[in-house]
Amino acid sequence: MPLVSIYNEHIVYKHMKIEERGYIMKEFFTIDDLSVMTMLSTRTIRNYITKDFLSGKKIDGVWRFTADDIDKFFKVDFVNQSVQSKKYGIVFNYLSNEVKNENSVCSIYDYSNVDNDKAENICNRMIELVNSNQYGKVTFSYSYNGKKKIVRILLTGTIMDIHTLMNDFINLSQ
Question: What angle do CA 94, 98, 102 make, to 5 degrees?
Fold first, then answer.
């Protein structure tokens, strides 16, 4: 069932669902895939490999990780904390940047009682809109907690871009 993890600016990458983490399953993931999923740098991920926090196989000179490898990786407490802090770093970066070139907004949208199909629908609609490039420079983060059935969308950008994006999102939802 396709769900999408974390999106930063206009970089959008689909993954497969791994347990209840909201990722889409593929046969193998690369270091770049993990970097997009976690917002950790490729260098940090390579360091985790070196320190045996992440295991995988090197195939034709490229690291490949299975869903099981990634699940074990996410179960390491400080890795999970690091990923969470990166994900919510969008809000922190917004708050810590005192000088803004334009009027801007940081919005958090929570949708509760969302099953997997509806979460996928919400995510795909948001990806479609963000990728249309008609909303300026919008920073977008998406997460789905399957256990609690909550979708969280974090958006930053100009007030007008976010307002227009969310109006279009709501119109697509009806």
Answer: 80
The encoded tokens of residue 119 equal 């979460």
Bridge-based pairing state of the strands 139-145 and 57-59? unpaired
By CB atoms closer than 10 A (0-12, 13-18, 19+), residue 63 is: buried
Residue for token digits 């347990």? 19
What distance separates the 2 farthest-apart alpha carbons in the chain? 49
Lookup result for tokens 């090197």: 58
**Distance separating alpha carbons of residues 39 and 82, to the nearest angstrom:** 9
In this prediction the pTM is 0.60
Half-sphere exposure of residue 91: CA atoms within 13 angstroms, side-chain side: 12
In this predicted model, what pLDDT tens digit does every residue of 49-69 receive, in sequence order? 999 999 999 989 999 998 788
